Amino acid sequence: MSIKSKVIAASATLALVGGVSMVGTLSASAATPSCGHRCIDLFSRAFGTHRNPAFVLDVWRQGKNVGQPVILYRTSNSDPAEDFTISAQGTVHDFYVAGLVTAALNLHYSNFEAYEIEYSPLGVASGLCVGVGSTPGDGTPVALEQCGVSSKTLWIADSYDTIAGGYVPLINGADTNFSHPYVLNYPGNGAYPTDVPRPQLDTWTLSKYSNGTVFDNQLWGADFGVLR
Considering only the top CATH level, what class is 3-8+38-221? Predict the structure, then answer.
């Protein structure tokens, strides 16, 4: 049974994370007109702000295949590869009750929001979500995977490490390292989104500066809307 069948998916409402909203509604965001305000734009704090996200989540070459790399690319309202929707939503405990995440994950993150992020080019659901094809670790590639099959396509908003502006790390739902969780990561080796070959997102151990702040390339924000 799929996640959508086991958990009643909430509509794409604002999710309060750590007392601030992870998701906002702005005119300056990326989605094709066909997807519009149903689409969510996910972006890295390393490459812009809510008011000016320079690069957003993108599927390499607009492919609709399991294993298709997920990257960041220039914000645009004419690129269907940047169309994503939240296809399932609830707390980690909801998914635990549904038998989709482990008791250990529930113990550590029970009240945190968990999401599937579905690739929806031109507003049409593909059945493919942002995820990993194996248990996450350092350098595990992030790609399109079948939605609703396992916790590998779940992403948990880490309320412990939310910072001002609503940026949060996103812990993969198949994580097994609870002292140092594996989170959505933009490669921190000097890669830039326009490099060739395109840098593929991966998972990596949650990393912090000496003051306890999470690295910018592991902090994510989101908006709904269309560029105008």
Answer: mainly beta
